[in-house]
Amino acid sequence: MKFLLIALLVVAAFCEPLTEDNYNFLFSKFQEQYNRNYRPEEQALRFSLFKSNLDRIRSHNARTDVSFKTGINQFSDWTRDEYLSILPNMPLQYSDAPVWDNEQAPTAATVDWRQKGAVTPVKDQGQCGSCWSFSTTGTMEGRDFIDTGVLNSYSESMIVDCDGDCYGCNGCWPYLALEWVQNQGGDCAEKDYPYHAVQETCKKSQCKKKGTCKGHTNIKAQSEAALATAVEANGPISIAIDASHWSFQQYKSGVYYEPDCSSTQLDHAVLCVGYGVLNGDNYWIVKNSWNTSWGNEGYIYMAKDRSNNCGVATSAVYPNTCSNL
């Protein structure tokens, strides 16, 4: 794996065209790293998609007017439709819960709840549009840690399989999932109800322990100032973003700013675990659910205080209290 990553960094650093042998070599290493076994009839398509993405990555990384880098990852041989299939686009809606509207400057210049022990390792939703369940468990896990001092990992699959108010692999809003978890008396521990990247028959009776939360609070819509104070005071926050762009698909490092992003057409739920500054650029620390092979070990630094880029502050929510039963 390390050999492939080094090779890709090397070829991305130069502007000279790659030869067909170069492409073939890198594609073979890509297939090894990501365990790709194509049918004979799709081999040419996947190779073409890989080449196209590699060319775009090299072109993007040669630019001096952008603040982030792109790179090869598990989506580099996917079609546009395949990528969009894991981003369930749902009409924007809000709950009638109380609103956090504190827009005063936070007391801390930087916040990172990972360093405080409130964030579980990066997970992987696979080819299922279940990001909303990962965003839900992420904010529950963080709130639970703050309230109890213990970091528990909660089950996404129980929510996906059992929550009849949501749509399994076809999406949902995290606030609805938080309401459902409360009404059901809690969510299973991950170890008792492991994740499968499909919606299956509900098996919540197999749980030995559950984590429960009471109530939730919305963060003032469109307000990055309110999101900052909420993250500092309340821990990891469930947020929804526009992740539909190629630049997000192939993001690797740096502060992500996409001028074509929408702040209202949101299609991906993630977890905001803090904020900071890199080379003068303010950013949000965002945990994704696409494994550590994507982005910066599974994370993305998203532009902060740049007119709510990609909708980071449009639909944010956190549970009021959580505990492990």
Mean pLDDT: 94
Class based on secondary structure composition and strand pairing: alpha+beta
**Number of contiguous helices:** 9
* End-to-end distance: 41 Å
If you compute it from the alpha carbons, what radius of gyration comes out, rounded to the nearest whole angstrom? 20 Å
Organism: Anaeramoeba flamelloides
Protein name: Cathepsin l1
Domain Peptidase C1A papain C-terminal: 107-320
Family: Belongs to the peptidase C1 family.
Give the topology:
Elements: H1 2-12, H2 20-33, H3 43-61, E1 68-70, H4 80-84, E2 99-100, E3 111-112, H5 131-148, H6 156-162, H7 174-184, E4 187-188, E5 210-219, H8 224-234, E6 237-241, H9 246-249, E7 251-256, E8 268-278, E9 281-287, E10 299-303, E11 317-324
Parallel strand pairs: 2-5, 7-10
Antiparallel strand pairs: 1-7, 3-8, 4-5, 5-11, 6-8, 8-9, 9-10
Helix pairs in contact: 5-6, 5-7
Summarize the structure.
The chain has 325 residues and is an alpha+beta fold. It has 9 helices and 11 strands.
Care to describe what's here?
- With 325 residues, the chain is α+β, with helices and mostly antiparallel strands.
- It is built from nine helices and eleven strands.
- Strands 1, 3, 6, 7, 8, 9 and 10 form a seven-stranded mixed β-sheet that branches.
- A hairpin with a 2-residue loop joins strand 8 (268-278) and strand 9.
- Helix 5 packs across helix 6.
- The longest helix is centred in the N-terminal third of the chain and has 19 residues, at 43-61.
- The protein is globular and about 60 Å long.
- The model has no long low-confidence stretch (mean pLDDT 94).
